[in-house]
Predict the structure.
Amino acid sequence: MHRLELIGISKQYPAVQANDRVDLRVAPGEIHAVLGENGAGKSTLMKIIYGAVRPDAGEMFLNGERVRVRSPHDARAHGVAMVFQHFSLFDTMTVAENVWLGLRGSRSPADVAAAIRAKAREYGLDVDPVRPVHTLSVGERQRVEVVRALLTDPQLLILDEPTSVLTPQAVEPLFATLRKLAERGCSILYISHKLDEIRALCTACTVLRAGRVTGVVDPRVESAASLSRLMIGAEPPQLTHRAPRPGTEALVADRLILPRRDRFGIDLEAIDLVVHTGEIVGVAGVSGNGQQELLAALAGEDTRAPPASIRLFGRTIGAAGPRTRRRLGLHFVPEERLGRGAVPPLSLAHNLLLTRREPIGRAGWLLQGLLRSMAQTIIARFNVKASGPRATARSLSGGNLQKYIMGREIDARPKVLIAAQPTWGVDIGATAQIRAELLALRDAGCAVLVVSEELDELFEIADRLVVIAKGRLSPAVATQAATREQIGQWMSGLWNGPAAEGAGALV
Amino acid sequence: MNEVALLIAATIASGTPLALAGLGLLLNEKAGVVNLGAEGMMLVAAIAGFAAAYHGGSQWIGFSAGALAGVAMAAVFGWLVIWLNTNQYATGLALSLFGTGLSAFVGIGYVGKKLAERSTFEVPGLVHLPFLGDAVFRQHPLAYFAMALALGIAWFLYRSPAGLILRSVGEAPESAHALGIEVRGIRLAAVLAGGALCGLAGAFLSLVYAPLWVEGLVSGRGWIALALTTFATWRPARVLAGAYLFGGVTMLQFQLQSEGVQIASQLLTMLPYLATVAVLALISRNPAWIRINMPGALGKPFHPGA
Amino acid sequence: MLSFEVRAQPSVAMSFASPLLALALTVAIAALLFRLLGRDPVSGLGVFFVEPFATRYSIAEVALKATPLILCALGLAVCYRANVWNIGAEGQFLLGAICAGGVALWVTTAGIEAPRGVLVPVVLLAGIAGGMAWAAITALLRDWCNANEILVSLMLVYVAQQLLNYLVFGPWKDPLGFNFPQTKTFVAATLLPNLLPQSRLHIGLVLALALVAIFWAFLFRFWGGYQLQIGGLAPAAARYAGFSARAALWGAMLISGGMAGLAGAMEAVGPLRQLTPYVSTGYGFTAIIVCFVGRLHPFGIVFSGVLLSMFLIGGELGQSRLGLPNALTGVFQGLLLFLLLACDTLIDYRPRWRRLVSARDEPATPAQLPAGGAP
């Protein structure tokens, strides 16, 4: 008898078939992977299992019994627990209060604190019930979510891309916890697009592509190539690499010190960073270690830094705003697309005006024709699937919008480009294209800085790597000379040098 | 009677409607909903209460009618804002404008009318205390209710599980929803409770404080109550204190006039409003202070299933 | 039961249809209200929708009342599109009237002789300056102290009203006015020229229509208007682009304050020709409704300005012809705004009738169109 069985699950959204007659079978105590690229339908399927979304067709069985899960509440009543990629935590409340909110029921908040300690001890997790959540790192927050899920005594635990917020070192302890859980009879659904992890942890794997199941395999015997073929229908696209030819210093951060702007931020401490023309520098690090603050300082959204601590081709720009920096050739692609990189209800053409000045005529009159033709050029060159320059930003899929935004900045022929999470949530085809564009930019002599939480990406395209941890920057190391273990260590702040003291162990 | 004691008593009376409305709005905002319709709700409740008391003969009928009127208006607001996801600010404004018009319309026949009952209140025993007796123990029961309410709401919000759930809804409704909390129902409950309290506040004005009906009786107290929640940084005891502060400023203008201070009456009438502006300016200066206590999702719409 | 599903794309058709639908519903409720009040609904509605266009004079009155509404609403449209919630247009209107009236009064009492072509612009500019100055207080407090502009601008309305009262009951009171709270009547050279003989309509209408075109161009064809609107549509994008939030705040407040001040000035030296405590019959607040019903769009505002002006005229006619209380106007205005907000949901949501399968019927959203969003 299966713990969980899905038969013929389908879900249609207005523009896309998210799930198309999906079957899924999970045995008791099995660690079952759901593999697929971004946009394949994994999240929708999980939301259906968890009750956040209703399927158009299909049936769900738990322990052989047909069930209708109409809400997360129902799901929990049936013993299904989920740890989301985006946490459901309340910053201003303590861990115990947060966990209690997820459980409610007959236990009082005080009882919950004791239960948290017991469960944490049982699984070897380090969680302190009295700490306010806003003081926790991302990895610690995930542990709170895990403990909260465990306290519901689940029969099925769903984890959505759990390692995206962990350092490489923290992955193995998580796996240990999951294996222990599986031994106790709980089934685990592990959603990921990381082939190595699935092959290391999972005993079964259902592969989704474009909403359909393309295979159900045992990942332990499959190769990365065969899994990849099931996932995207082909071998992963190869990028052509040329040797970097670094030139002059383009962007320099010189002992950049920046106190946090609000209570929940991170202080930047003595950041030293150099990006040369013709190279790509990658900034690795787990989310929440100062990336946002560093990007704001470099792109000009935060101008509080001492002016001389940021230089562009020798010119001090610490006090200059984003528009001045763009005029000097510094362009930025932020990690949030809708709402920051682009304005959702505006057309692609009008979104051009966020960062480009060419269509602004005399006295501020907007040149509509030029606006549209520029947008059309970008759409064509960067292969953006959109109905035209008049299409609204929000009508595009994530990957296409990112291509447009990236294209908008690259089309400006920048001398320095900063890109944050350039391929997060983007499907493999667009991912390959974006990475190829970044490499092409570099080959053309642009200085490129990529901030990414995805180590694989940085190892793929960066020439040199630095790590940001708790507001400090590690020394740079050539990618070819670096190893994942070393970078993982550095993510915990443990690099040799003056930054070592005070960093402390981090997850 | 002691002048100072009288002043204190008048301040408490004047602050009571502000406190009631302010506490009601506090509950709203802790759940993440801003209701700019306070002024409109108070106006409609004031005339509803007055009319009910006039025809029904008893003050308590009036208060019930006022509270009900507040709940009814809050229900319309709540349905629009919580289920239809309309813009909270625009909808609240619409409620105020509508309430202003409706109360003026309904109240036409009641201008100049007097209520039958006009009793005085005193707390038996305690009223004979020197100074304190006159200052504090001659108030209408609702004044003491307001004080107890402040304490009760503080306990509810920070020491009870239900209060924790309410705060979670105001802090991050998507997270609360993911945890299976019925966000919309809780928000509606908070909005209705807020409406009832604003209704009581409005009825207090027309039944006890004035007591009469004229168009525009509330004179901006609904807006001041809204300002109160901000500069009380969303803590109940501070709402109460702020309410008395404004009650005091309002009383100040009468005090100054009676002392023959040579300032035109209209300029003195400006005092409470100018005071509100001044306090708002001072309090808002420290954004960090505000951020800590402000419900994280205040004013933002919530879509289940998103 | 009725449930609402999110549309893939907001419906353009509905954004035009919604105000009309709201109006239709308001009319329906109005008819009901007339019935309840013991009046014939047809004559009641006629007074509001037909009578105002019956004579040349009444049409002129509709245009006359529409002028200040349109002026204020144009300024508010810029403000609201920039996400600056100026609710105090009424106060800025009053200050405009006070300043313009003050200059006109001074010219009148000091017996200054100057051509109309000089005096009228000076008076109007004084009004604009007054409105801007009053709005600047709100902008300043928001800029320096982070104070909520809704509450500050609103409190200043009450202060402005008291200021006007003080002036007309006190220092500016006409000594020959039988102790009524009013100023002397302004001398003709300061008054707005008439547009239509035998009516009160003045050239303010022409100026208002010209400003409609100017505001349209500013919002939709100029860089300045673009920047202001981004701040309202997506503040994070505005920061990313490097648009100054401070410039947007001051620009929006000064523009809307100036427009409201201009409207107030026109009232004082147009139909009223003096200052009294009743310079404004709530124009500043009605303008907020005009703004929303007109979809924050200059062309839409012309239509909604005329519509709400009809409500105002209808209210007066209803009082004199049918004995209906003037306060009805306020009820209808508020109702219209409410219904508009309710109907606007149809732009983003599609109504669906579902069989009552379960108590929980949650709309699914196209969450799998992850067009961006924060990781």
In short: Residues 1-47+324-354 of chain C form one domain.
